[in-house]
């Protein structure tokens, strides 16, 4: 299924399990099905072919920032709403608002063959602003409690500049341990530029 958001200059396409994605009045809504996740354990286990999560992704051109306020209907540990970037089958990253495991937390996963996992800061309530940025080979993750002042979370690469140019970015919903949850994204915004400074709060 394809979906076009007026805020984005590129169409979105669904991947993985059915996320029942819908868009109305500036709000994108997705559903994380039971025991859905996208994670390759660093302890050595292979990715289960059935291990996947609902994704809605598109292909922006050039430098960009993708911003959204993410709200998660938390029910079980590790339920999450995610901004996601995909470069290849084992090269992708997640910027999450996750119930981790008993308090809402901004966390990140970068997968290069296997996944790492890092928590950033906790959040009061069930909403936070997330931002993915790209320039050249580099991606940056930021998060914000109010959509005004941004906290730098992570800077990383996922492949060559050619591979990165073809990256897919967008939205993911997961419920690894539970029976599912609803995730909404509002205040979606696209900026065709890299942030002027990663660490000054802008």
Q: What's the quick description here?
A:
It comes from Streptomyces brasiliensis. The protein is mostly beta strands and 202 residues long. The chain has one helix at 161-165; strands at residues 2-3, 12-15, 22-24, 27-32, 54-58, 64-72, 80-88, 91-99, 104-112, 114-115, 118-122, 127-135, 138-144, 151-157, 168-174, 181-191.
Kindly report the average pLDDT value: 94
- Compressed to H and E, one letter per element, the order equals EEEEEEEEEEEEEEHEE
Biggest pleated-sheet summary: 9 strands, antiparallel
- Please state roughly what percent of the residues sit in beta strands, choosing from under 5%, 5-15%, 15-25%, 25-35%, 35-45% or over 45%: over 45%
Number of strands: 16
